# Entry
Amino acid sequence: MLSNSSKKSLPAISGGEKAGRWVGRMVSKGSRRDAILHSVGTVLRDTRLSNLTMKDIAVELGITKGNLYYYFKDKQDILFQCHMRCMDLSLDALHAILAGHSGQNEPLHALLVQHIAGMLANGFGSVLLTDLDNLTPLQRSLYVARRDEFEAGVRQLIESGVQRGVYVCDDVKLASLAMLGAINWLPKWYRPEGLLTADEVAHGLANFLMKALQPKADPTKGAAKHIRETSGPLTHSPTRSKRPEVNRKAT
# Structure
């Protein structure tokens, strides 16, 4: 069984209901399915779905097993829907950014932040650690198609940055896979009760990953600038240069 803190974090569907308890037909079917999936995401932060039965999930969500089966065929169906919801959040962010509706000066950074925040805030990211072999061939193909679309969008943004001269990248595909691979491992170590909020983790990790694409500073340009700023007039002899003395060991 999970801790009481997990149960308390389940979302309330109506203002008068206690969080984490089933409210029957008070809201639309789609809303009830989404509420269950958000709650399952929270449950998965503390345990693997493969270790839970439908009865266990129903108990943790505060609903009957019959209600759970009304919305989902089986545990495999719940896993599939969580995968798809997770990708929907990221694809919505990608489509808005590619359409130029995000208003962000740095689109790739904005996408990474939204991708990470969506995974952590909704709990769906925990599903990414589950084995895709548990899905049916059709479910797997549907999910992989959305995942590939998102990966292609990330590569497109990296390529755009390279063309604009703001990124340096020898292998765009490798860079995109490295970025997304690092992000996908977040649910393994992230805890909502930790020192950093989901938003702080999202921005911090995005900043870290973006540094790999930043052009390296040319040390020779820096050295030349330093010499120009510290050297005296060219008419002075080297022995009478006005350059500041450097600490030296007495001889």
User: Anything to note?
Assistant: The first helix runs from residue 4 to 8.
